[in-house]
From TrEMBL:
InterPro entries: CenT-Element_Derived (IPR050863), DDE_SF_endonuclease_dom (IPR004875). Residues 200-213 have a biased composition (Low complexity). Residues 198-231 are annotated as: Disordered. Residues 25-197 form the DDE-1 domain. GO terms for cellular component: nucleus. This is DDE-1 domain-containing protein. One of its GO terms (molecular function) is DNA binding.
Length: 231
């Protein structure tokens, strides 16, 4: 699992988005996936805004996202504890998995408040090594943000030609979450995820040929948490 910040309304062109707007339109995303890409957990969105009405009552498994409203959009122990409880339920009791976490204090406190069951092991990454050892930092987050920028650009260009006014104002939290889920589910290839784990040295080198035909997650595939020891 790893977090990343996202300026969901942030313009690539500063003339369209004042600095104050860029500052107020930031989310923290929690991403978690197993080493083959076959199990992509719902994205957790930590934002200062109230949960959009359109997201109320949606099943996270079906919608692909969980909205967490917080005055602080930085990771704290409260969302971490809640995320861990959901992760443990997702894994169940029949599989053994390793969950990789960096040594962020919010992670450590969250684990103390919500300790894992016996079939889930927390593996702490050494301090100061997350840029090398955190799998999602190798390729996945970069691919995710690249995909978001492309969708954002296409939307802005379309609105510039079709509607008057600043097209930035047409980007809503609901629309941003829709794009986030679209990219997470379908915009990142399984091979990209596998290479990220390989480059982080978490996994031993393996030929990715078996993943070539699985660019999109297989709904029928057995899910995994991070590194699934049962597979």
């Amino acid at each position: 699992m790893d977090e990343t910040g996202l300026h969901w309304k942030h313009a690539l062109y500063s003339t369209l988005a004042p600095k104050a707007m860029r500052h107020s339109s930031r989310m923290t995303l929690l991403l978690c996936v197993n080493s083959t890409g076959s199990d992509r957990l719902p994205v957790w969105v930590i934002a200062s805004e109230k949960k959009p009405d359109s997201l109320d009552g949606l099943d996270p498994g079906a919608s692909g996202a969980v909205w967490y409203s917080s005055e602080s959009i930085s990771m704290t122990s409260d969302p971490m504890q809640e995320w861990l409880s959901n992760f443990y339920s997702h894994i169940g009791s029949q599989r053994s998995v390793i969950l990789l976490l960096d040594n962020l204090s919010a992670h450590q406190k969250g684990v103390r408040l919500a300790p894992p069951p016996s079939n889930i092991r927390i593996q702490w990454l050494p301090p100061g090594t997350t840029d090398r050892n955190q799998p999602l930092d190798q390729r996945v987050i970069r691919a995710f943000k690249s995909g978001y920028r492309k969708i954002w650009q296409m939307h802005i260009i379309e609105k510039m030609y079709k509607e008057p006014g600043n097209p930035i104002h047409t980007v809503s939290p609901e629309l941003a979450v829709h794009w986030i889920v679209q990219i997470w589910k379908h915009g990142i290839k399984n091979q990209t995820i596998h290479k990220s784990f390989h480059e982080s040295s978490v996994l031993q080198p393996q030929p990715p040929s078996s993943l070539a035909s699985r660019d999109l997650p297989d709904p029928a595939a057995r899910p995994g948490g991070f590194v699934d020891l049962s597979e």
